[in-house]
Write a structure and sequence with these properties.
The complex is a heterodimer of chains A (354) and B (283).
Chain A lengths: L3 E10 L2 E11 L4 E5 L6 H9 L6 E6 L2 E2 L10 E4 L11 H11 L4 H14 L15 H13 L5 E5 L7 H18 L2 E6 L2 H7 L2 E6 L2 E6 L1 H6 L4 H6 L3 E9 L2 E4 L4 E2 L11 E7 L4 E3 L7 E12 L3 E8 L3 E8 L12 E6 L5 E4 L4
Parallel strand pairs in A: 3-8, 3-9, 6-7, 7-8
Antiparallel strand pairs in A: 1-2, 1-4, 4-5, 9-10, 11-12, 11-14, 12-13, 14-20, 15-19, 16-17, 16-19, 17-18
Helix pairs in contact in A: 2-3, 2-4, 3-4
Chain B lengths: L2 H31 L1 E4 L3 E7 L2 H8 L1 H34 L2 H12 L6 H12 L4 H8 L13 H25 L3 H9 L4 H12 L1 H16 L3 H7 L6 H10 L4 H29 L4
Classes of the chains: A alpha+beta (354), B mainly alpha (283).
């Protein structure tokens, strides 16, 4: 069993709390991402699990064993760094063999396990090269092979794809997912890239300011954000201020929308989030949901998508993103149209929060 | 402008000074080193001989001085390395608040004149010096220890004088070791000692090489300190060359010794760098 549980984890530097009372249960074989803006404490949590930073308070257990005060070399974790952190003075083979040798592996068994790990990351035959002779993507694959070779009970990733260019990042993401599915090792993955977190993880833990904002499945996080922070951080939301009136929300310009789930009471101030990609545009009013009349204020083409700034009523503006292959991709500035919003895509959360 | 021409232009002032003031006089000494010197007469014109070089390897006195110089160079380099590495490690990895004071402390001796520092060691190391008096007063020894005019004195004095160079080189090398690489080794099961041996030490090999070459070269060419702490009889190559030139006026012999010193230095540096690079996996 190698489930990971963090209980009331705290890290303070002097008077500054970087991680504040974080509790997290990760099931065996589960892939969990810590997602948040820089400085939210996600890397600090990862390094505390690895044993590189000592927690100020709280406990960390792996498979029921308390490892809070163990040095990193006694924890049996595999860590993959953003900077790859390969041993530059050793060959790829020696890099991957490093952890195995520490576990007393040698001879043909060592040889076999290094080759197995290199084959897993599709780098078979690269053993004799030095890290400096490899591309960034290859170096990160060596780092992964090095981390998985000793069969750690937990795999930790610290923004492993951030140093790669966009195209390579997508390839590596797929590779990583395949690897984790095949190995079924409990994984904690730190990233600030939401697409990465949503597509890779079984569950995502969104953090801000040292506190967990929401810990749920990617679908849940995306469709039912628990806090205004999550709603504003995930996807590309339009954020509008509104007041609740008679079971509907009234925007600043007098525009009224009817969301499906409205928890707030009459007269309360709320934040309304409408995702750019959840909205469609049409010349005639749509049949589903609400059709709000508006005019195009700005058009911006970015390849696969076209973004429009649409003016609604007197003082509201929202950004709408449509596929550039669709019908609504050729509208121009000043065109009058309807913005179709389905009630379930209108997310309302109590106002006044970060 | 091509980068080659820019480079040549940037180099030219120093190159001019070096060629005029160093390379040309050095080349002029090459023929001198093959000339014959007759005591009481001076250099014999048009008499060419290998005797100045042969003597270095056949004459017991010369051979002893050569071996002593090289041995001293190796010993001072090793002691600087052993004493300097922990200091450099503390400067780089210790509390950042101590970094500046510690660095200043390391550099401070360089601000004092070499002669003054060597005199300081004489005061400490002579037969009736501070160290011997203290040891005798404490009853630890009956007779004063011979700390000067021998290898011990030179080793102590030269190590002290060249330690700052080694420390500064090692500090630069340690700063270039990525912390993540050490952390990676730790998560892979390395104890702190093993992280140091398997990762930190090999990754600082360039600094170890640079610092060692610097200290070795400075040590075997040092003149003032060996003269002051070694006295007139305990010779190293630098003091011997000085005496050949300035006391005996035997320029051919002095020149031959100079070249022998330079060539053996280059050889030793070349071999030891290759060995270190191979050990650190840099080759």
């Amino acid at each position: 069993m190698s489930n990971v549980s963090l209980r009331h984890l705290v890290k303070r530097y002097g008077k500054v709390s970087v991680v504040r009372d974080v509790s997290l249960e990760i099931a065996e074989g589960e892939f969990v991402s810590l997602l948040g803006p820089s400085g939210c404490g996600k890397t600090t949590i990862l390094r505390m699990v690895a044993g590189l930073i000592e927690p100020s308070d709280g406990t960390i257990t792996v498979g029921g064993r308390d490892i809070t005060r163990l040095p990193p070399n006694k924890r049996n974790v595999g860590l993959v760094f953003q900077s790859y952190a390969l041993f530059p003075h050793m060959t790829v083979f020696e890099n991957v063999a490093f952890g195995l040798r520490r576990k007393g592996e040698n001879g043909p068994a060592l040889q076999a396990r290094v080759e197995e790990a290199l084959a897993l990351v599709r780098l078979a035959g690269y053993g004799e090269r030095y890290p400096r002779q490899l591309s960034g993507g290859q170096q990160q694959r060596v780092a992964m092979a090095r981390a998985i070779a000793p069969r750690p009970s937990v795999l930790l990733f610290d923004e492993p794809l951030s140093n790669l260019d966009a195209k390579l990042r997508d390839e590596m993401q797929i590779e990583l997912k395949r690897l984790q599915r095949d190995l079924k090792i409990t994984t904690l993955f730190v990233t600030h890239d939401q697409a990465e977190a949503l597509s890779l993880s079984d569950r995502v833990c969104v953090m801000n300011d040292g506190i967990i904002q929401q810990f749920a499945s990617p679908e849940e996080i995306y469709h039912r954000p628990a806090t205004a922070f999550v709603a504003g951080f995930i996807g590309k939301p339009n954020r509008l201020s509104a007041t609740v009136r008679g079971g509907a929300v009234e925007l600043a310009g007098g525009l009224v929308l009817h969301p499906t789930n409205l928890a707030a009471k009459d007269g309360e101030a709320v934040e309304v989030f409408i995702r750019q990609e959840a909205v469609t545009l049409s010349r005639t009013a749509g049949t589903e949901g609400e059709a709000v009349p508006g005019t195009i204020a700005l058009r911006s083409f970015s390849g696969a998508q076209v973004q429009y700034v649409v003016r609604l009523g007197a003082s509201s503006e929202i950004v709408v993103e449509v596929p550039s292959s669709g019908e609504a991709s050729n509208l121009s500035q000043g065109d009058a149209l309807f913005v179709n919003i389905r009630p379930q895509d209108i997310i309302t959360l109590p106002g006044g929060q970060a | 402008m091509s980068s080659l021409r820019t480079g040549a232009l940037l180099l030219s002032p120093l190159l001019f000074v070096l060629v005029a003031a160093f390379v040309v006089p050095l080349l002029l000494l090459v023929p001198t080193s093959f000339q014959e010197y007759r005591p009481g007469h001076g250099i014999v014109p048009d008499a060419w001989t290998m005797v100045n070089y042969v003597r270095i390897f056949t004459d017991d006195f010369y051979l002893e001085v050569v071996l002593r110089t090289i041995g001293l160079g190796v010993a001072v380099t090793l002691s600087c390395l052993l004493l300097g590495y922990p200091v450099a490690y503390l400067i780089v990895r210790g509390n950042p608040r101590w970094r500046l004071p510690l660095t200043l402390l390391v550099i401070f001796p360089l601000m004092l004149n070499l002669v003054v520092r060597s005199f300081g060691w004489i005061v400490l190391l002579t037969n009736r010096g501070v160290v011997n008096n203290l040891l005798i007063d404490l009853g630890l020894i009956g007779q004063p220890l011979k700390l000067m005019f021998n290898t011990t004195g030179l080793l102590i004095g030269l190590t002290h004088i060249y330690l700052p160079f080694m420390v500064l080189m090692l500090v630069a090398a340690l700063q270039n070791v990525p912390r993540d690489v050490e952390a990676a080794a730790a998560t892979l099961g390395s104890s702190r000692l093993h992280v140091f041996r398997a990762v930190t030490l090999p990754l600082t090999a360039p600094g170890i090489i640079a610092g060692s070459i610097l200290v070795f070269v400075l040590t075997i060419s040092a003149l003032v300190t060996p003269r002051m702490l070694g006295g007139p009889t305990y010779q190293v190559m630098a003091t011997l060359i000085y005496d050949e030139y300035m006391q005996l006026l035997d320029w051919p012999s002095g020149s031959a010794l100079s070249f022998a010193l330079a060539i053996s230095t280059i050889l030793i540096i070349w071999i030891s760098s290759r060995m270190t690079k191979r050990w650190a996996g840099l080759a």
